[in-house]
Amino acid sequence: MALTSTFTSINLPVNNVEQSKVFFTGLGFGLNPQFPQNEESAAIVIGDSLQVMLFTKELLKSLTQKENVDTQKYAQMTIALAFESREKVDEIVNTAVSLGGKSYEEPEDYGFMYHWAFEDLDGHMWVINYMNTDAAQG
Q1: Other residues' Cβ atoms within 10 Å of the Cβ of residue 2
Q2: DSSP state of 130
Q3: Nearest alpha carbon to residue 47 among 79, 76, 2
Q4: Paired strand residues for 69
Q5: Tell me: the pLDDT tens digits for 65-115?
Q6: What is the DSSP string of 23-34?
Q7: CB-based contacts of 88: which residues, under 8 Å, 6+ apart?
Q8: How far apart (Å, rounded) are the C-alpha atoms in residues 14 and 34?
């Protein structure tokens, strides 16, 4: 059997945990009550077995002993999430922009797959997808 994780937590450095909490809860995500929320960290629930830990840049650097990536110059990674419809993709990206994020390029429509992206308040790239699996198989 292939190795599989029972829970995934992505750790992201942010400039201001409180502002990032407002951004992500404004998108509709919730806080994970099992993890402490303070000015240095917060846990955002993304899915049943996925969360994003927001850490101040200083705290994450102390945990990794590595410099944080300058997201104005470099993409360390993109975070891709799938949702139930094209309309939901548009809603999420438009809401992210209204909360201070930036849309990234224009939406792309491949017929069976539709996606659009945004940068959060700290320049992390989020790709929001919809895939019609029936059309993809046909």
Answers
A1: 3
A2: E
A3: 79
A4: none
A5: 999 999 999 998 999 999 999 999 999 999 999 999 999 999 999 999 999
A6: HHHHHT-EE-TT
A7: 130
A8: 20
Please enumerate, as own/partner, the contacts of 4-11 that have beta carbons within 8 Å and a separation of 24 or more.
Answer: 5/49, 6/49, 7/49, 7/50, 7/51, 8/49, 8/50, 8/51, 9/43, 9/50, 9/51, 9/52, 9/53, 10/50, 10/51, 10/52, 10/53, 10/79, 11/52, 11/53, 11/55, 11/60, 11/63
DSSP label of 69: P
Predicted local confidence at residue 137, as pLDDT:
61
Q: What is the DSSP code (8-state) at residue 105?
A: E
Amino acid in the structure at residue 131: M
Q: Structure tokens of 25?
A: 């809860």
What distances in angstroms separate CA 96 from CA 43, 71, 74, 100, 111, one per listed residue?
A: 18, 17, 20, 7, 24
Task: Check: CB of residue 111 under 8 Å from CB of residue 134.
Answer: no
Question: What single letter denotes the amino acid at residue 61?
Answer: K
Beta partners for 8?
50
Q: For residue 5, what are the CA distances in angstroms to 48, 51, 131? A: 12, 13, 23
